[in-house]
Amino acid sequence: MTASDVRIGDSWKQPLSAEFDSPYMAALRSFLLREKEQGKRIFPRGAEYFRALDLTPLDGVKVVILGQDPYHGEGQAHGLCFSVRPGVRIPPSLVNIYKEIESDLGIPPARHGFLEHWARQGVLLLNSVLTVEMGRAASHQGQGWERFTDAVIRTVNESDQPVVFMLWGAYAQRKAAFVDQNRHLVLRAPHPSPLSAHAGFLGCRHFSKANAFLESKGRQAIDWRLPERPE
């Protein structure tokens, strides 16, 4: 699996070329091929494994939101954490994200869960693990994706532009623990899952804080209002 083999924004190819050429990525590719040969259904589809990097170029990253692994239900995952395809029921964690945006910014909740509008503005919606077997949550953990996405986070951390990292839940906070807080804004809160959202995610005001930081650094704020119809 090389950078030339996959759909990935050009700005990412050179910084991540060593990862794509590494033995662990070759092993990961072999694992995925074996899974498919055994008739297992893998989400998202192959063209969307790197959708987050394809939509959000490195030099355009303003905000990083970290998820864990893709949704494993039929028709949900399409390569962006917390996002689902148009027409798919909005997942509970995203419902709580919308609630917080409404409380923080006065933006009514969207009627869909398709977040590409955010990604195109510079919100890197990155899962730690980029694939999953249908119906089996966390089934592709420990196969190499975590190492790759660590490299993505390091690459953003080393970029010249100041970035906001929204780290929701202990998993995301551990994964990005090395981010330079002298150059970037690191916002931490519990995960927006219904199990933990009321323990501090709701009321965290991360969205207004992110925009205030970006504007203070001369960067354009994110328009968190999603279009009525998915783009």
UniProtKB/TrEMBL annotation:
GO cellular component, one term: cytoplasm
UniProt KW keywords: Cytoplasm, DNA damage, DNA repair, Hydrolase
A GO biological process held by the record: base-excision repair, AP site formation via deaminated base removal
Keyword ATP-binding carried by entry: no
EC top class, as a word: hydrolase
Record EC number: 3.2.2.27
Uracil-DNA glycosylase-like domain ranges (all copies): 54-214
Location relative to the cell: Cytoplasm
Alphabetical list of CDD domains matching this protein: UDG-F1-like (cd10027)
Xref: PROSITE patterns: U_DNA_GLYCOSYLASE (PS00130)
Catalysis: reaction(s): Hydrolyzes single-stranded DNA or mismatched double-stranded DNA and polynucleotides, releasing free uracil
GO MF annotations, alphabetized: uracil DNA N-glycosylase activity
Residues the record marks as active site: 69 (proton acceptor)
Pfam families noted in UniProt: UDG
Its job: Excises uracil residues from the DNA which can arise as a result of misincorporation of dUMP residues by DNA polymerase or due to deamination of cytosine.
HAMAP family according to UniProt: UDG
Family statement: Belongs to the uracil-DNA glycosylase (UDG) superfamily. UNG family.
Protein name per Swiss-Prot or TrEMBL: Uracil-DNA glycosylase
Gene, per the UniProt record: ung
